[in-house]
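Lab notebook, design round three. We kept the backbone fixed and only want residue identities now. Task for the bench partner: fill in a sequence for the structure below.
Input structure tokens:
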């Protein structure tokens, strides 16, 4: 029987949640540490842009294959393998003597994170009865949000308390300790489940998919860093034949494909991917750039920066909690959440240029409002996409959704750095960060307009059917 009793399900779900949170907490922690890494390793603008996107790029490339690997080899086995890779990558990052070593270690961490992250989302339909699944989706979003809360604060505390000779390396040592704890907990509580051998995907299909992500996302970091040389455009163009090959291999593989055709025939799932692209993944680039600007422009310490930006993830926890209790269908909640998120980004945009080290409360309030809107949005989008999928498609669905989120996050970070760096040539740091925010305002505004149009069409069709 697939559905466990509530207590057993909760115990099994806990290590999955913590492992997923570990992959999320990494991004804000490293964002807070980035100025120290730049100074210690002597990084220039090019190296900084590449290093900032290395982790997210690899996660985006490997997330979907890892989700399908959970279907084939068992989620417990894939989860523990991912934890081991994340642990090794964190230790190597802590020992990095230079930028190349650190980038390689971060990529290894990214492979581990890709194996960890999709297992929690994919296990919700297996662990929980349909009536309990909305609460599980909300718990998933709230756990990720809590990780974001802890990320800036923990990074700030570690950087303030660590000896000068250790500095930013303390963050990666803390991540290694957390990864070891997660693996021990998963080994005790996470029971194996029967793997579906038919879910196997051929190496050519996995390679073609990874090549698509690489060709689409990597140029967003390489182009601005190196002045958009010809090879960058050739890489972008190479995405087309890679996509054609992937489509052909997918058609041949059928239900065993990385993205089964039946998955994309579900309208709600397709729209959830669009909302992930436009809205849910908008904040990461904003968060990374803002962390840099607050430290470099206002002279805030890492801990002060963490305290200022902590309002966003605190708001996400609140919004995620409220999402499961609003008496609205998921699409209506998506429309409300994206509209509020766009409005919050407009508010923060207006606030940034007037910030001073002694007047930070407007930004704290804006971050809290944006976080609440984000929590409402992400929980609703996840429920919109995953609810109603057959259990046989849960792994592919989870991997596809989180892959789209990671692709968008990597693109958001790369584009935000590009816009911020360009604006810095003619504007002060906070004004450059405000200019960068038009990217987030535009994507979330488009998501709100789309959700409203879809909701209006749904209501119209329902009324038409009734008459």
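Proposed sequence:
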């Amino acid at each position: 029987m697939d559905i466990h009793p509530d207590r057993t399900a909760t115990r099994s779900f806990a290590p999955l949640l913590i492992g997923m949170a570990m992959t999320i907490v990494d991004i804000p922690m490293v964002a807070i540490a980035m100025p120290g890494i730049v100074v210690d390793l002597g990084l220039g603008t090019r190296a900084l842009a590449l290093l900032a996107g290395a982790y997210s790029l690899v996660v985006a490339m490997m997330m979907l294959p890892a989700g399908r690997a959970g279907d084939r080899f068992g989620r417990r086995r894939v989860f523990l393998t991912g934890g081991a890779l994340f642990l090794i990558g964190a230790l190597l990052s802590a020992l990095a003597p230079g930028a190349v070593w650190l980038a390689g270690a971060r990529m290894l961490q990214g492979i581990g994170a890709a194996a960890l992250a999709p297992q929690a989302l994919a296990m919700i339909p297996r662990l929980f009865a349909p009536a309990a699944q909305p609460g599980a989706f909300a718990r998933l979003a709230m756990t990720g949000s809590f990780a974001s809360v802890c990320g800036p604060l923990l990074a700030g505390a570690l950087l303030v308390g660590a000896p000068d000779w250790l500095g930013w390396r303390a963050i990666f040592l803390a991540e290694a300790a957390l990864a070891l704890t997660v693996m021990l907990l998963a080994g005790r509580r996470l029971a194996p489940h029967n793997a579906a051998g038919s879910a196997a995907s051929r190496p050519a299909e996995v390679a073609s998919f990874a090549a698509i992500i690489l060709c689409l996302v990597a140029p967003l970091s390489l182009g601005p860093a190196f002045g958009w040389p010809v090879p960058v455009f050739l890489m972008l163009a190479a995405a087309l034949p890679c996509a054609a090959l992937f489509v052909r291999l997918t058609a041949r593989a059928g239900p065993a494909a990385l993205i089964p055709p039946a998955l994309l025939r579900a309208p709600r799932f397709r729209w959830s991917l669009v909302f992930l692209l436009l809205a849910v993944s908008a904040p990461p680039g904003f968060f990374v750039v803002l962390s840099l600007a607050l430290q470099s422009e206002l002279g805030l310490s890492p801990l002060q920066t963490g305290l200022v930006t902590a309002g966003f993830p605190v708001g996400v926890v609140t919004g995620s909690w409220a999402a499961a209790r609003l008496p609205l269908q998921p699409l209506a909640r998506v429309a409300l959440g994206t509209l509020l998120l766009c409005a919050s980004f407009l508010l923060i945009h207006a606030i940034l240029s007037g910030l001073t080290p002694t007047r930070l409360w407007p930004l704290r309030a804006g971050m809290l409002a944006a976080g609440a809107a984000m929590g409402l949005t992400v929980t609703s989008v996840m429920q919109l996409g995953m609810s109603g999928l057959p259990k046989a498609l849960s792994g592919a669905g989870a991997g596809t959704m989180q892959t789209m989120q990671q692709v968008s996050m990597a693109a958001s970070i790369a584009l935000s750095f590009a816009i911020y760096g360009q604006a810095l040539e003619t504007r002060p740091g906070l004004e450059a960060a405000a200019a960068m925010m038009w990217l987030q305002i535009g994507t979330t505004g488009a998501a709100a307009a789309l959700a409203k149009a879809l909701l209006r069409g749904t209501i119209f069709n329902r009324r038409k059917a009734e008459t």
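Keep this in mind before ordering anything: The CA atoms of residues 70 and 98 lie 34 Å apart.
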